[in-house]
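INTERNAL AUDIT FORM
Audit reference: QA-55
Scope: verify that the stored structure record matches its stored sequence.
Auditor: D.O.
Record contents follow.
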Amino acid sequence: MKREINVYWNIENTMTTQSLVDLYQVPNDKNDLNEKLSTLEYQATNILSKARNAFNQQQILELTRMERDTLRKFLFIKKYRHSEFHHRYNHNPTQKYNISDHHRMTEYMKRKHLQHPEDIWFDNLRGLLDLDLEDSDWGRKIMNNIYPDDAAFFIIQVQGSFMAFCTPESVDDEFVMTRNAHIAEGQEYHSFFPISPRLMIILRSNLLRDASIQKRSILDDLPIQVSRSSYTAHVDWKPLSEHRFFFSCFKLSPTHVSIINQLLRNEHTTSIIHDSTYTKASATYLREDRGRRHSSNKGRLYEQRVKKNTPSPGRSRRGKKSSKLHMAQYVAIKVGSQLIQKRHMLQLYQLFRPEAAIKSLWHDIDQASKMVLMRIKTDVALHNSSLSYTEKETVKLNRQKLFMNLPAERVWLYLKICRNMSKFDKDDFKMQISALEIEGIEDGYAKLIGDSPKQELIRDMYLHATT
């Protein structure tokens, strides 16, 4: 029976549902691998069902050592089967492989009598699937059985991080479900594995126990902890199968959920995935609200340009870019966090979008932050360009016209984010240097635009607040 996954495709701003069979399928001539992968996925599915049932009943999740290790192996292989890893080996012949470990890989292929770099990937999968993590000597064995660089990466994930289950604190929040198997923040400080819109597994690096390193993470205050265990470690301690681990489901604030979703959204390529039982709400951030005239083609063009210029999110250290949240996005989250605590500000927002939910507000904040990001990037480009003063001013005028044609609520939020950019240290934007100013001139236009959403009023609001 083929495993089908429902997918919302984001192609040229259309939203269509199709099925995707065997997301990262192993070729049929490697049936032994397919069988082993199916067995691991079946075991992991049972463990995750056990977790969902426990957390739905507000209970602590109890896992055996074997269950915990099975889940950790499953998460790594989920990451390892990600297209980015497969593409790393999808080169023929080896001369086309130009990453820094080319020499080591070539020697390894000769020693293992492998013909193509891709054979290493399949061989590594076999070694990982056959590995018994209850064997006290598993670390040495995996280093001997698979490509050492990838073996070291596996050991770092298993021994260098702890696993935590999380759910959004607010009933209005959900985790974005992307096609990507996982996403990591920075130098693998955190790896995120969305299980459902309301459940996520996070692997947090043990390095973050060091306060000086912790400050490097944008999620340094993430409220998660190591699971409790049924044993006490001592000098002669050995891992035993009867050991038990007790996991709580940690609740994440709207701010934390927004940061994580921002990383996931930046990473998504062509689609968002969810099982047939999941809500469609996790895909709505790709869809413009129907029937809204001021959601123009220019607005969509703007979003495409911003996506093109947004820094790539975090990936592993081997030749991949690290993830960074831009200052504009961070300030937007801080502004949004204060705004939702002010009832009268929410009422102003709802004048633009009557009956809008909190998640709609966060989506608009995300879009407004991208407006700020676009402004910054174009300003930098203009500063470094050889255009004349008149030509530069023409570009700025066209950008201004573009912004004034975007949805009123996003322009309103954009003005608030811009005003508060100076409240943070530009060299370390996580450091706030003065109090935020949430209220502003633009608030006086909310009722006017809500009653009569004319483009002239949006223009007046923009010009009044920026001049």
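Auditor finding: record pair retrieved intact. Confidence is low (pLDDT under 50) at residues 1-24, 269-323.
Action required: none
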